[in-house]
Fold this sequence. Notes:
This protein has 15 helices and 5 strands. By secondary structure, the chain is mainly alpha-helical.
Amino acid sequence: MLREDEAFAIEYLSVALEEIDEDGGEDVFLTAIRRLIEARGGMGNLSKNTGLARPNLYRSIAAGGDPKLSTILKVLQALGVGMSKVVSHRADVGISLTPGNNTSPTITLPNSGITLTPQPLTDAQKEALKNAAANTPAVVYHPSTEVPATTEPMEAVDTWIGRSQSPDFPQKAAQHSNSTEALKTSYEAFKSTLASVYPDLARKKFGFTIEANGNLKATNSSGELSDADTQQLNTLLNASSGLKAAAATYRETAIDMVDADSPWSGSYLGRYNLTKENFASSLDLGALFIPKTSTPSKDQIDGMFFNQLAYKGELHTQETEAAMLAARAAKKAATEG
Length: 337
């Protein structure tokens, strides 16, 4: 029997697989794997079970790179989840692992239901390949062709890795969690009042965010709001001083938490450059509080904090990270001084 967090993680993984070809879809898919890793005992336990070194896992799964399919399959097998289980009723192509053979996935064709399984070469096929290799020259040498010497110097390439997670991260994450609850309470109170005073408007799907100047702005991702609806919501949102203050505090703690994290370890939020200026285009605050159901909906999964950043967030560069760290250091020095 799966625990609730495990069942949710598997369902999350199946939804993420459907969207893997969309912008940001690979990030969401890897996030789903990370959630399943957490539900099954964390990275250390996974490293022990797979025989993969922890740095290997970070590079291939956690660091947002392009992990090999065989690595993903091996990780999922260690988690006790075959890809066929993850995509059993959703994916167009099912991939599963045979215990003890995690390098040979089977592929099931969606329309015919035929399963294709890699077969080992027969002795005759091996002999044919051997003869072909022996009779085919690997290099054709032309004595009359002068081979130019390589005279260009080798060029050193610097690779930017990014910062480690700050020791302050647990504190920043706790502050963000508290501000999330406070924002949720304020937003639910706003929606309750809206339903009493403007029931027709309250029945329409909308969200909201906070702009750089601190004003709240209605979002209309569903397309249900008219221009007049949006204008009215903007007025009502900004008239709610409690909601406005809660949103400002939430933005501050969200930025602090992201800045304190690392792009290659921890919660992997450090790869995003979240600022007051780009916050409104990166996060829909209303989408954070879409009610949970027994089976996660696409809207609910897309509205999760990390997934919104994966789809809409601005990635750090070496320059933007350096500027952020310098600004943080200056702010800390001014506070301590």
